[in-house]
Amino acid sequence: MLCIPFPQATAVTVLPNDVTETKPVDRRIDTLLQIDTEEHGPFLLAVEAQKKKDPEKPASWGYYLAYLRSKYRLPPLLLVVCQDRGTAEWATRPEPIGFCSWPSLTVRPIVAGPHNMPVITDPDEARTDLALTALAAITHAANPDIGAILKALSTALRDVPEHVADPLVEFTAQGLGNRPARYLWRNLVAVDLSFYKSYISEEIRGEGRAQGRAEDVLLVLEQRRIDVSDEVRRRVTECDDPQVLRHWLTRAVTVPKAEEIFEEE
Predict the structure, then answer these.
(1) Alpha-carbon distances of 176 from 115, 121, 136, 142, 181, rounded to whole Å
(2) pTM, to two decimals
(3) Which of 11, 135, 156, 250 has its CA 20 to 30 A from that of 21?
(4) DSSP per-residue letters across 46-65
């Protein structure tokens, strides 16, 4: 009668109809933003970082979207950020939630990955779209040029008000996860955005102020997988001038060879 090709049922079981959570469940979206527009009004942007393929994840994404729609009464969009092409292509596929050929809900996220995000290493280009630059930096966290990419972003953020820089700094830090690029970003925040006060700067202060310290110069080079000779290590560790060390730290983010941190810009 409904013209829906359901297979013949062999058994029917009545289940409890209460869908209330029976115990606290910790469900957190990586980042949730409300964005207001003149033409279409406000909407929600839920941002999820996805490191690898996970067949269980689309069900969680469907839950997030339904929950956000019910709680805020605003249309939600899901943005999935991936750092490798394989995961990005997997996440792009629509995920139907339903039975047979009749999905009741289809999860269809917007996916950003290294295959469709630009590599931005010019601060002037970064200034034209700071949000895109931050998103692109996250997707290219494994790129050999990530130091230059993050440097372009931190340089561009120097010129904007704190209320604009704050969410972008936090968003970038969260999106980089535990990759080595996160340590580069923390040091850039300390050097280029000294005005910035956040959990990142608090971490740095708690560790004895990473900026200007010799070990952090070496850490940045090592995280970028750049060979550090005994001579470079000796020269860095024996330096006790905070301003010189700060300059070397800034250089360590982008130079192709460790010895070049000592050159004047």
Answers:
(1) 17, 17, 11, 9, 7
(2) 0.64
(3) 11
(4) EEEEE-S--TTHHHHHHHHH
